[in-house]
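User: Teach me something about this protein's shape.
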Amino acid sequence: MLAKLSRILAPIIFLSMALIALYVGALALSVDTVSIVFLLGFPFIAGAVIVHFRPKGTFRSFGASVLFLAATMLGSFTGSFVFKLEGLICIAMAIAPLLGASMIGGLTYLIYLRWKTETKGAKTVFALPLVAIFCASLLPSEPKTYVISHDVLIDAPAEKVFEMVKSIPDIQPSEVPTHLSHWLGVPKPTSAVWTQSPAGSVRHSFWGEDVHFLERITEVVENRRISWVFEFPKGWAAQGIEDPHIEVGGRYFDVLSGSYQINSVGDKTRLTLTTQTYDGSKLGWYAKFWHNFFFEDFHQAILSVIKTRAEA
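Assistant: First, the predicted structure itself:
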């Protein structure tokens, strides 16, 4: 039993390490890993290579080959996390295109094996997907900014809500519902402290014990609106919290500005939290999905605390 298990695991481990080595090589050569070509082209070719080198005796059938491919790719993801090549956030964001493209690459290779004895044009089965990926990377795509808003209806007057949003001290973990982003390593908010100086008003936001950024106030309309621009000074987050590919203020991602809008609705108040973000990845709708995913979690965490405290 042990010998059989080792025959199955050994090639999976070997190929997983080979894929990690190729990835490290791509980083060393400064290959743009946040791109359509890398996210789809690399795993497509890797999928074909994995299926080609699968143990023929154990994984000869179509279904077993697909299973071996999936296990190898998942092993690679696990290895990249264990060896700290990538963080959980980056793996979660990339796993769908990487795993999907590798499966297509493996299936394409299996189709090629069946066709190569029947038609001379079988090799084009590889060329067409790769050409399509390359052409997609050439499509013009400019950096984008996204405006993400969420609101909550609070059973409290606008004046009370306004004071609540200025400073939110001593937020307990139990006050913030646990979302998927927290399981991926994003800390929960712990406090927001409003300070006043001759240079202007600043709100200091603390998330967990290792995150501290600034919201420099640009507009205050009493009981109606607070606006700010974000500042992330050096050392704002402890090492390891940010992923290298999605650093705030980096090439692919930034958080620009935010605001609270307060509107009276009868004897209640609607509080709207808005954040403007920057996306330089040129990944289109896929990047937009993740911007909305994370900021919905961030917004709901803050809005739920304000609502609970204002209504208490």
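Now, about its shape. The chain is about 45% helix and 25% strand. Strands lie at 144-154, 189-197, 200-207, 211-221, 225-231, 253-265, 268-279. If you'd like, I can walk through any region in more detail.
User: That's plenty for now, thanks!
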